[in-house]
Amino acid sequence: MSMKVGGESGDTISEINITPLVDVCLVLVIIFMVTTPFMTQSKLTVTLPKAATDESKNEEHVTVTIDKDGKMSVNEKDVKDDRELLQYVKLKLVKTSDHVVIIKADENVEHGIVIDAMDVIKTAKPKRIYFATQTNKSGAYQK
Prior knowledge:
- By secondary structure, the chain is of the alpha/beta class.
- The protein has three helices and seven strands.
- The chain has helices at 19-39, 82-95, 111-122, and strands spanning 50-51, 61-66, 72-74, 77-79, 100-105, 128-131, 134-135.
- The strands form two sheets. Strands 4-3-2-5-6 form a five-stranded mixed sheet, with helices on one face. A two-stranded parallel sheet has the order 1-7.
- The termini are far apart.
C-alpha cells in the first residue's frame, strides 16, 4: 500500500468534502432541539389554580389559554371572540389524533368567561376537555 504525498500536478481532487456539511447540519439540529420548547409557550401569563392531584399524559392536544383579563389564545394564536375561538379550535382539533382540549385559565378570571369558552369549545366536539392546574408538593389542597 502506498500513500501519495505532495501535490502531483496531474491529479485533481474530484471528491466533495462533506465534513463541514455534517458539522453545520448537527449544529442546526441542536439549535432546533433547544428552541422548540420555547415556541409552544403561550404569550399570556396565567396563574393556574392548585389541585391535589395532577396526571400528565403524553397526548396531542389543543391548548386554550385564558388570562385574568379574559383574553384568550389557542395554541399561541390570540382570538378576539367566540366565533374565532371556535374556528381555531376546530382547525387545531383536525390536526391532532387525540382530539383533546386543555383549558389553562387564570385562577382570578371570572368563572362565567371560562364556562362560556368551554361551551364554545364543546361545539367543536373534542373527545375530552381538561383543565390545567398546579400541583402542590404535599398533595393536599391549600387555600
